[in-house]
From TrEMBL:
Organism field: Onychostoma macrolepis
SUPFAM superfamilies: ThrRS/AlaRS common domain (SSF55186)
Gene3D superfamilies attached to this UniProt entry: 3.10.20.30, Threonyl-trna Synthetase, Chain A, domain 2
Region (Disordered): 313-337
Positions with biased composition (Low complexity): 314-330
Location relative to the cell: Mitochondrion
Ribosomal protein keyword on record: yes
Xref: PANTHER family: LARGE RIBOSOMAL SUBUNIT PROTEIN ML39 (PTHR42753:SF9), MITOCHONDRIAL RIBOSOME PROTEIN L39/PROLYL-TRNA LIGASE FAMILY MEMBER (PTHR42753)
InterPro entries per record: Beta-grasp_dom_sf, Pro-tRNA_synthetase, Thr/Ala-tRNA-synth_IIc_edit
Protein name (record): Large ribosomal subunit protein mL39
Similarity field: Belongs to the mitochondrion-specific ribosomal protein mL39 family.
Ribonucleoprotein in keyword set: yes
Keywords attached to this entry: Mitochondrion, Ribonucleoprotein, Ribosomal protein
């Protein structure tokens, strides 16, 4: 036990020194290259084509049987055999009742349910969307300060939609300890996010061993700690990674298929939470609505005002949330309440 603790501390000290030698762009490129290497290795595990049967569930689809390729076909691949609406609207899937990313390969014959924001009960997909919006904010912040200042993205808080804002916790370079973002800074973050939305970038999933995840994030002491924690909680000791562009992040639960599912998106505030073991901890917050759901500018203004307030995150918060709706009035709860 003592040996493992010493090895962990030594690894973190080495990773900290290595990180000082790499720019932010170089770190992103390094992580993305290792992600691609592991992705290729996993794909090579299925050298020959083996067929599986996928039974699609859902309105108008009950009993639809698709013959797909094990280890290569994904829920998104299945939508290409259905309709264009299913291709564009499916944000998440259930495989034998379990949440499954749209681009995660299917490894067995299964029942498949495609989830959209228009479902009668969209709570699962709404929470995945909120989580994805936070991951997108992390992507923006990771590159927002160029190579002039370091950015350490902390573990993404799992915030229910009812909180009114999605959150991304981070620690900035100590030279920015007294920095307070201006409205123009927030608008700049929002513009960067909307550029990624317009590009419709896929969130690529990859389930990896803890050793691979630690190698990918060998320059981040914070991420190494998160990886060790998530691996310890996982039944098979694996960790879920997601890549968008060249940005790689860790997530405990699935994200939606791509950034193109975002309709309205705005970064509204950055709060200083105080000192932590990593430095001055901050919480960036934002507000968003998914594709096909929009809010009138007056309703959006109300939602924005609420989203600006610091989101307090209890140690154990429920993620059971009501569905997002497009309707909102001052006398009834707005869509992201």
């Amino acid at each position: 036990m003592l040996m493992s603790v010493c090895q962990m501390l030594q690894r973190r000290l080495v990773s900290s020194a290595a990180a000082a030698r790499l720019s932010s762009a170089e770190l992103r490129s390094h992580r993305s290259a290792l992600f691609s290497k592991e992705q290729a290795r996993q794909r090579s595990l299925y050298p020959r084509t083996e067929k599986i049967e996928v039974t699609v569930q859902g309105p108008g689809l009950q009993g639809t049987l698709l013959v797909m390729n094990r280890g290569a076909s994904t829920p998104y691949s299945c939508t290409r055999h259905l309709t264009e609406w299913h291709m564009k609207s499916s944000a998440l899937a259930l495989v034998d009742g379990q949440p499954w990313h749209m681009h995660r390969p299917l490894t067995r014959s299964c029942d498949l349910t495609l989830l959209t924001f228009k479902d009668e009960d969209p709570r699962i997909v709404n929470q995945a969307y909120w989580r994805s919006c936070a991951a997108l904010l992390g992507h923006v912040l990771d590159g927002a300060f160029k190579d002039d200042f370091s950015v350490e993205l902390l573990k993404l808080p799992e915030v229910p939609v009812t909180a009114g804002a999605f959150c991304c916790d981070l620690v900035l370079d100590s030279r920015l300890d007294s920095w307070t973002p201006s409205e123009e800074n927030l608008r700049s973050f929002t513009r960067d996010a909307l550029q990624m939305v317009q590009k419709d970038l896929a969130w690529e999933p990859l389930e990896v061993s803890s050793s691979v995840a630690l190698e990918i994030f060998s320059h981040s002491r914070c991420k190494q700690e998160e990886i060790e924690e998530r691996a310890a909680q996982s039944q098979n000791g694996t960790v879920s990674l997601y890549r968008c562009g060249d940005h790689v992040t860790v997530s405990g639960d699935p994200l939606v298929s791509s950034t193109g599912l975002v309709s309205q998106y705005e970064v509204v505030s950055v709060h200083t939470l105080g000192e932590s073991e990593w430095g001055v901890r901050r919480r960036a917050q934002g507000l968003s609505l998914p594709l096909n759901l929009t809010a009138h500018h007056k309703a959006w203004k109300m939602l924005r005002k609420r989203a600006e307030r610091l989101v307090e995150i209890p140690s154990s918060s429920s993620t059971e949330t009501p569905p997002l709706t497009a309707e909102a009035t001052p006398t009834s709860p707005p869509p992201l309440q």
